[in-house]
Each structure stands twice: as C-alpha cells, then as structure tokens.
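Lab notebook, bench 4. Still working through the backlog of constructs that have no structural model yet. Next entry is a single chain of 118 residues. Request: give me the structure tokens for it.
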Amino acid sequence: QVQLVESGGGLVQAGGSLRLSCAASGNIASINVMAWYRQTPGKEREFAAHIIRSAGWTVYADAVKGRFTISRDNAKNTVYLQMLSLKPEDTAIYYCAAGTRIGSYSYWGQGTQVTVSS
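Model written out:
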C-alpha cells in the first residue's frame, strides 16, 4: 500500500503562483509513475502532468504546458507541482496519483483545493 498526502493549495490571484507537494509513504518501491490530476465540480478528473520517478521524464497536458512544472525528490518521496501564471480556469481540486504504469494509478491522495481569483 501507498499513502499520498497533498499540501500547498490555497487562494491566489490570477497571475500568481503556488507549489503543491505530494508526500508518499508505504511501499514506494512499487511506484514508477506519479501524476497530478485536477477536477472541478461537474467535470471529469483531468490529467495535468506526470513524472517517471526513476528517470524524471515528464509529460504535461496542453492546458498547463509552459506554466506548470512537475518534479520529484526521491530522497523525500515527494512530488511537486510548481504552478506559475495561474488563471481562474486553473481553479480545481488537485489530486496526486501514483502507480506502476502511465495512466494506471492505484493510489490517490485526498486532494488540495486551488482557487484562482480574477
């Protein structure tokens, strides 16, 4: 089992920045990929970015590319999402996910709210 705890969400004005953190614990050795998703009420959960834990390779959704950066600190078992130039449409609950394969995530955090005011 793996436990994920997100932090760092909050209220920020448009154009501002936030850094989300996702601390993982448990059977970390089984995890190859970690990702950030986001969800707004009435919509499906949306992919934002993922990172391969070993190699550090990253992929971003078009909506966040160039503004968000996903990174990891394997010594701390933590993944980050640095968000710059935030827009009101970035408002969502952001979830951290972990799994053995890209797109197949067995573990999810509880989510952290990000609100961007215009």
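Notes after review: DSSP finds no helices and eleven strands in the chain. The two ends are 40 Å apart (CA to CA). Flag for follow-up if needed.
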